[in-house]
């Protein structure tokens, strides 16, 4: 048995048919790429792209990938599969010109058997066709954007991906590890073989073994089960993500025919409305972040290190759970959550039978949903980080009996495949009764321009009122009843209401507004039946452009109510973390609300916007404040200062002089507001509780020479297709204090066995490509992403006008 990465040796181009090629249309050159790869990222963003605000104004397209590879004659008789972790979208896989398989959904892992189409002892060609066109409400990317693996197994083998591991009985003294695997016999004779299973800890020490004979009739597949008993088990949790490895071997006598190795965790889950969620017997409150699948400057390309870095940063910011919105997450991201200790809600679909975009998955759902649910559960089953399967997000059908019937069908399908986790659904009460709300809105002459997000923003505080109404209570009762946990989008008004109406209902806030962090968290802490909340969003993302951008009166057309921003809007600008991985001020506010930070946090409004009239600030918006006291040419200008704190009072000092003292929470919970005439130096916030200092935070002004700095997240990287180096670029003074208002065009050159995979800033209004070697900083910062192509030393040189160049050295091994 062999299992090897199949990410290298590919090329791609815009797709043309054979007939078009005959007519001379196939002149586009094939561009070499290493997978994972996002074909859409190379497109030219234009203001006239249909539905451009949804995709960040990237145009759709149809693409084809190809690769050639030799297959040895000795492989004849083996079962050979190509395993795709995800292809967006409508993938058609051809081997030597013959269709070998297809997949409609863009987020499912799927395997295509290719040995019937191979020429053994010769070179073979694989082509993959795919597309993206008006089929998503966010930036989807396109192409083979996740890993590909080539799997070859002998005539008698362990079925690929069939290992299932559960830990049904765990206590302090021992854990029962149940391991099942499917064994396939594709020969024409009955065979009696042996299956072994061994469990090892993270250091490789043997913790337990079992063996079992299995008799296989010709062409039959049988399931073999083992129970291995592990003494004094090391349990998996957020704080201690202990992992184990199960090794399963298939033997004919002493001859090893096949083997599989699977990492898993030992842990228990319990759920009830009185003690909430318990992991290993301990109550856990979900501090959750919704995330989209793109990785900013990498587009949709799901490269392992980028997924790992994202989890590292989210966890450091105080989150302990992520919700994949609104599609199954990548295997690489699940692996990172397992290793680092991040809880997961994996989500199946954004739509069922009712479409949200012109050509979305709703056209394929009736035929494909069952296979795609099977694919999600198969991918997630052995990952201890996965606690919840979400069957949908803001499904309009959820407010009807037929929609509830679909929900029941989906939930029971999940349970038939995996009864060890909890099933939820992100139900938006407002969306569930749109058939009633829309006519009412029309009667009130409220525009529906901009889609459901615009309507929700218009409704403001009314959204909770609608979600808590008797109409929504009645219309969603059955849809909630089919679930283990009631997922609620923007409906914290139901938390206390449902404690009385539905005393057995357990709730999780599957989406919440950034503007209601404090209110929502107070409700979570006060109600044991509410497991926690997932904010929209933890990480900024491409598309849904400008949903969180504050828009001022001088840039909005009179009478406009749409929250969709015009070109060149690129990102939603609603994440705690920006697309380069930098924490925004809202992240520190949330950390304080969570009770994870005792020091206050200072943020200052951008002076250029200080006196502009706000025209649109959606519930997904945060203030435009940044953590800086470096503002050239602003002497004497009144600066708006926000201080986030859980203390009682904040005293503000400028260069040691008291400029004000305010009560925290006077206007907004966990916040004190000041107006301070700007003067360079040090601005310090001192927190007081019961008259005693409880923490402080200082912002210092940058001064003097402009210095260009570059720093890699790691100096040593692996020469594999799943590793990257992230190089942070900043414009500072000689002491390292950032100049946010002296942005420059930075140029990045990479020498050695590597390429510049992406270059970006966090600017949500941006016309620059991520694929070039030059990009303008935003608030004094940019990010370069370097991808190794071989082993050896790599030099990254960064230049900017008026600055000495800087060099970073990496080593790939």
TrEMBL record:
<dbReference type="InterPro" id="IPR008979">
    <property type="entry name" value="Galactose-bd-like_sf"/>
</dbReference>
<dbReference type="InterPro" id="IPR017853">
    <property type="entry name" value="GH"/>
</dbReference>
<dbReference type="InterPro" id="IPR013783">
    <property type="entry name" value="Ig-like_fold"/>
</dbReference>
<dbReference type="InterPro" id="IPR006103">
    <property type="entry name" value="Glyco_hydro_2_cat"/>
</dbReference>
<dbReference type="Pfam" id="PF18565">
    <property type="entry name" value="Glyco_hydro2_C5"/>
</dbReference>
<dbReference type="InterPro" id="IPR006102">
    <property type="entry name" value="Ig-like_GH2"/>
</dbReference>
<dbReference type="InterPro" id="IPR051913">
    <property type="entry name" value="GH2_Domain-Containing"/>
</dbReference>
<feature type="domain" description="DUF4982">
    <location>
        <begin position="636"/>
        <end position="693"/>
    </location>
</feature>
<dbReference type="InterPro" id="IPR032311">
    <property type="entry name" value="DUF4982"/>
</dbReference>
<dbReference type="InterPro" id="IPR040605">
    <property type="entry name" value="Glyco_hydro2_dom5"/>
</dbReference>
<protein>
    <submittedName>
        <fullName>Glycoside hydrolase family 2 TIM barrel-domain containing protein</fullName>
    </submittedName>
</protein>
<feature type="domain" description="Glycoside hydrolase family 2 immunoglobulin-like beta-sandwich">
    <location>
        <begin position="166"/>
        <end position="267"/>
    </location>
</feature>
<dbReference type="InterPro" id="IPR036156">
    <property type="entry name" value="Beta-gal/glucu_dom_sf"/>
</dbReference>
<feature type="domain" description="Glycoside hydrolase family 2 catalytic">
    <location>
        <begin position="277"/>
        <end position="437"/>
    </location>
</feature>
<dbReference type="InterPro" id="IPR006101">
    <property type="entry name" value="Glyco_hydro_2"/>
</dbReference>
<dbReference type="Pfam" id="PF02836">
    <property type="entry name" value="Glyco_hydro_2_C"/>
</dbReference>
<dbReference type="GO" id="GO:0016787">
    <property type="term" value="F:hydrolase activity"/>
</dbReference>
<feature type="domain" description="Glycoside hydrolase family 2">
    <location>
        <begin position="708"/>
        <end position="809"/>
    </location>
</feature>
<dbReference type="Pfam" id="PF00703">
    <property type="entry name" value="Glyco_hydro_2"/>
</dbReference>
<keyword id="KW-0326">Glycosidase</keyword>
<comment type="similarity">
    <text>Belongs to the glycosyl hydrolase 2 family.</text>
</comment>
<keyword id="KW-0378">Hydrolase</keyword>
<dbReference type="Pfam" id="PF16355">
    <property type="entry name" value="DUF4982"/>
</dbReference>
């Amino acid at each position: 048995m062999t299992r090897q990465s199949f990410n290298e040796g590919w090329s791609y181009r815009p797709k043309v048919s054979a007939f078009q090629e005959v007519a001379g249309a196939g002149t586009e050159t094939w561009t070499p790429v290493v997978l994972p790869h996002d074909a859409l990222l190379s497109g030219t963003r234009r203001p006239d792209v249909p539905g451009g605000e949804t995709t960040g104004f990237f145009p759709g397209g149809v693409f084809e990938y190809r690769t050639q590879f030799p297959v040895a004659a000795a492989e004849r008789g083996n079962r050979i599969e190509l395993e795709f972790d995800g292809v967006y979208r409508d993938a058609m896989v051809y081997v030597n010109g013959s269709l070998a398989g297809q997949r409609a959904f863009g987020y499912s892992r799927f395997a295509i058997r290719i040995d019937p189409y191979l020429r053994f002892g010769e070179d073979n060609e694989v082509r993959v066709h795919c597309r993206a066109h008006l089929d998503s409400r966010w930036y989807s990317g396109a192409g083979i954007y996740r890993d590909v693996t080539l799997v070859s197994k002998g005539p008698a083998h362990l079925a690929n991906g069939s290992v299932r591991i559960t830990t049904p009985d765990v206590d302090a003294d021992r854990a029962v590890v149940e391991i099942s695997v499917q064994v396939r016999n594709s020969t024409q004779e009955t065979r009696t073989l042996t299956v072994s299973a061994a469990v090892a800890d993270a250091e490789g020490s043997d913790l337990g073994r079992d063996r079992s004979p299995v008799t296989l009739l010709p062409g039959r597949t049988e399931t073999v089960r083992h129970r291995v008993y592990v003494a004094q088990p090391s349990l998996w949790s957020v704080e201690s993500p202990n992992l184990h490895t199960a090794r399963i071997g298939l033997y004919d006598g002493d001859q090893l025919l096949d083997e599989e190795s699977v990492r898993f965790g030992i842990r228990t889950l319990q759920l009830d409305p009185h003690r909430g969620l318990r992991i290993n017997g301990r109550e856990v409150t979900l501090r959750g972040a919704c995330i989209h699948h793109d990785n900013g400057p990498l587009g949709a390309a799901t490269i392992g290190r980028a997924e790992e870095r994202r989890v590292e940063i989210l966890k450091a910011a105080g989150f302990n759970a992520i919700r994949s919105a609104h599609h199954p997450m990548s295997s690489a991201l699940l692996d990172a959550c397992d290793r680092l200790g991040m809880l997961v809600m994996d989500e199946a679909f954004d739509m069922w039978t009712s479409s949200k975009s012109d050509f979305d998955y709703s056209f394929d759902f009736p035929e494909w949903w069952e296979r795609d649910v099977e694919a999600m559960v198969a991918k997630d089953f052995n990952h201890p980080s996965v606690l919840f399967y979400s069957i949908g997000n803001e499904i309009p059908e959820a407010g009807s009996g037929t929609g509830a019937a679909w929900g029941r069908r989906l939930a029971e399908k999940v349970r038939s495949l995996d009864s060890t986790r909890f099933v939820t659904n992100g139900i938006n009460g407002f969306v569930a009764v749109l058939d009633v709300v829309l006519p009412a809105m029309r009667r009130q002459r409220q525009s529906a321009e901009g889609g459901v997000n615009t309507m929700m923003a218009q409704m403001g505080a009314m959204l909770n009122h609608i979600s808590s109404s008797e109409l929504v209570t009645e219309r969603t009762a059955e849809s909630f009843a089919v679930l283990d946990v009631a997922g609620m989008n923007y409906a914290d008004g139901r938390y206390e209401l449902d404690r009385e109406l539905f005393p057995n209902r357990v709730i999780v806030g599957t989406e919440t507004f950034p503007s209601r962090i404090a209110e929502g968290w107070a409700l979570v802490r006060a109600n044991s039946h509410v497991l926690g909340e997932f904010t929209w969003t933890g990480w900024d993302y491409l598309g849904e452009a400008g949903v969180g951008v504050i828009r001022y009166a001088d840039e909005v057309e009179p009478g406009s109510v749409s929250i969709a921003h015009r070109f060149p809007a690129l990102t939603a600008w609603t994440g705690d973390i920006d697309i380069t991985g930098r924490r925004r001020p809202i992240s520190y506010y949330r950390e304080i609300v969570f009770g994870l930070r005792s020091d206050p946090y200072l943020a200052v409004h951008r002076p250029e916007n200080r006196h502009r009239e706000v025209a649109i600030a959606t519930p997904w918006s945060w203030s435009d404040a940044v953590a800086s006291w470096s503002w050239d040419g602003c002497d004497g200008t009144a600066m708006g200062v926000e201080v986030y704190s859980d203390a009682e009072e904040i005293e503000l000092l400028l260069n040691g002089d008291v400029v004000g003292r305010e009560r925290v929470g006077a206007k907004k919970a966990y916040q004190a507001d000041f107006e301070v005439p700007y003067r360079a130096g040090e601005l310090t916030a001192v927190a007081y509780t019961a008259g005693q200092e409880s923490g402080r935070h200082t912002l210092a002004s940058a001064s003097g020479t402009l210095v260009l700095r570059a720093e890699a997240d790691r100096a040593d990287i692996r020469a594999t297709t799943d590793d990257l180096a992230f190089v942070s670029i900043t414009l500072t003074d000689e002491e390292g204090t950032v100049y946010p208002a002296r942005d420059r065009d930075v140029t990045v050159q990479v020498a050695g066995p590597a390429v510049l995979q992406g270059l970006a800033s966090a600017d949500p209004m941006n016309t620059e490509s991520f694929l070039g070697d030059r990009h303008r900083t935003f608030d004094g910062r940019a990010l370069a992403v370097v991808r190794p192509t071989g082993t050896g030393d790599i030099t990254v040189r960064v230049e900017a006008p008026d600055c000495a160049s800087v060099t970073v050295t990496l080593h790939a091994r």
